[in-house]
Design goal:
The chain is α/β, with parallel strands linked by helices. It has three domains: 110 residues, Response regulator (Rossmann fold), CATH 3.40.50; 66 residues; 160 residues, Heat Shock Protein 90, CATH 3.30.565. It has ten helices and 14 strands. The strands form three sheets. Strands 8, 9, 10, 11, 12, 13 and 14 form a seven-stranded mixed sheet that branches. The chain has a five-stranded parallel sheet with strand order 2-1-3-6-7, sandwiched between helices. Helix 5 packs antiparallel against helix 6 and helix 8 packs antiparallel against helix 9. 27% of the residues are buried. The C terminus is likely disordered.
């Protein structure tokens, strides 16, 4: 839409009096700039007609939720599916903030209570809705471009690190004792880079999901033991012990990204440990409602004043001076799984990260057949 083009409003309203009033408001001489053309308005009374009309270069949709062929929030859901980039402003006769808030949560840009509409308020709401939608489109485009760039960069980094690690390992038999120390540092740095790219990838998956996660039963024992095996392989000087209720009957409500939670907590327990031989104990406790995984280390511990900040919670976000994106990702994922993560002191020294997740029943053969 250029400055020379009128704003095209699609009004979906079956009440003749309300439709006439809104049409009059739109035709007010005070609408828009003096040099701008008056808005064009297309009026339909049914959802079916609105679906067809929205394809005709519409800039914004004013949508009543109570129509002859659709009622309630289902009307909005259907309209959200029908539009492409056109913002929707919901019209409601209910003086109830919850109706408008729910409409915005389900895809509307804004809402108006009919009894409160004035020409000025209608004009501002329409203009702001169009402007916000345009800004969001630009942001989505930038995010898509950044996601593609990040994917390419991660792919290239992983490939190059793989080459470095492969050639580095072949040098083990060709260097002296002093060279072995340097080689070990190089290989550790390579492992660290690989771990960072994996964590960044997991975090981008979370950010790019764009909605509520599809939670399902996840085999905790399989995920946990797999991550412990990988940590033992990566950190040969570290002792990792697992105790408690660990068996294949334990399932929690989560997604496949649960592995990233334990991978980052285990890596953090080693990376920030000041002992020559770090010791980590993983203890599992379960009850009818939840399963708690307690990861304790013998490191230097974390001051009380730092225990919340280390997750990057609140307004700190990714700019937190905590341990980095790994713990922020842990906190984000556990919250997504409707669980919680708690940081406490270990005795006599070190820290304990406890992840509490909702327990889920083990999926049966009938479940798989139903899917």
């Amino acid at each position: 839409m250029t400055n020379a083009e009128p704003t095209h409003i699609l009004l979906v309203e079956d009440n003749p009096a309300d439709a006439r009033l809104i049409t009059e408001y739109v035709s007010e001489s005070s609408w828009g700039d003096a040099d701008a053309p008056a808005p064009a308005i297309t009026h339909v009374e049914r959802l079916e007609a609105a679906r067809e009309a929205v394809a005709d270069d519409v800039d914004v949709v004013l949508l009543d939720l109570g129509l002859p062929d659709s009622t309630g929030v289902e009307t909005l859901d259907e309209m959200v599916q029908a539009v492409t980039t056109e913002p929707i402003v919901v019209l409601t006769g209910l003086e109830d903030e919850r109706v408008g808030e729910e409409a915005i949560e389900r895809g509307a840009q804004d809402y108006l209570v009919k009894d409160d509409i004035t020409p000025r308020l209608l004009q501002q709401t329409v203009q702001y809705a169009i402007s916000r939608e345009q800004q969001q489109q630009q942001l989505r485009q930038r995010n898509a471009e950044l996601a593609l760039l990040t994917q390419v960069v991660r792919h290239d980094i992983r490939n190059d690190v793989g080459v470095i690690m492969g050639w580095g390992e072949t040098l083990g038999d060709h260097v002296d004792a002093q060279g072995e120390a340097h080689l070990e540092r190089m290989l550790n740095a390579g492992e660290h880079i690989a771990s960072i790219t994996e964590t960044v990838g997991d975090f981008l998956d979370v950010l790019g999901d764009g909605g509520d996660p599809d939670l399902s039963p996840v085999d905790l024992e399989s995920v946990l033991t797999n991550e412990i095996d990988k940590a033992r392989s990566a950190y040969e000087d570290t002792t990792i012990t697992i105790t408690g209720d660990v068996d294949d009957a334990l399932h929690v409500t989560a997604t496949e990204l649960l592995s990233s939670v334990f991978r980052n907590l285990l890596n953090n327990a080693v990376a920030h440990n000041d002992k020559p031989e770090p010791e980590i104990t993983v203890h599992v406790e379960s009850n009818d409602e939840t399963i708690a995984v307690r990861i304790a280390d013998n490191g230097p511990g974390i001051p009380d004043s730092y225990k919340q900040e280390i997750f990057g919670r609140g307004e700190m976000g990714l700019e937190s001076s905590g341990s980095g994106i790994g713990l922020y990702l842990v906190d984000t994922l556990v919250e997504m799984f409707d669980g919680e993560v708690v940081l406490e002191d270990n005795e006599p020294e070190g820290s304990v990260f406890t992840v509490v997740l909702p327990r889920s029943r083990k999926p049966t053969e009938t479940d798989h057949e139903a899917v």
